Amino acid sequence: MAKLRRPVADSVEVRAPGLAALAVMAVSRLPVAVRRRVLRGAFERARDAFNRGDLEAVFGLFAKDVEYGPPPPLYSEGLLHDRAAVLDFWRAVFERYDENTIENLSLDEVAPGSFVRRARLHHRAHATGASLDYVVVQTTYLKRGRVVRQVNVLEKR
Asked: Are 59 and 86 in contact (CB under 8 A)?
């Protein structure tokens, strides 16, 4: 893999996730308007990391024992359990499809430490022409500054 150019915040999440989790906990105590700006910035950084293939940055704040429900077009066997399984899953997706992008459509904090994002994903394998395009509703739960559960469901049309 080519050397990645990570923003400083992404580097902290990858190299010092405990420190990053403390920062997330501090942000959670800020006024709602400030939290929303920081949250939007965090999801924009996650989008950028995904689009450049930097999965370690995307999942840097996932707890070791995270419960993860992958997007249904890619996986239909229930939840994955633990961060390593999530990384293995997405590495396999990136091996199968050589073009993988995500676009944030909306983001809401529904309760402290609970977020709902709508996102459009696109995967394409140039060799075969196979492609997937879909929109997910992703619900994320934080505990102690880490993602402890994230579930993706297809948006109903």
From this structure: yes
CB 94 within 8 A of CB 53: yes
3-state secondary structure of 110: strand
DSSP state of 32: H
Retrieve residue 119's tokens.
């996102």
User: What pTM value is reported for the model?
Assistant: 0.93
Helix and strand numbers (H, E) in the chain are: 5, 6
What residues have CB less than 8 Å from 82, skipping those under 6 apart? 64, 65, 66
- 8-154: CATH class: alpha beta
Extents of the domains making up the chain: 8-154
Amino acid at 31: P
DSSP assignment, residue 98?
S
What does the CA dihedral 6, 45, 91, 66 come to, rounded to 10 degrees?
120
pLDDT digits (tens, 9 = 90+) for 1-49: 445 689 999 999 999 999 999 999 999 999 999 999 999 999 999 999 9
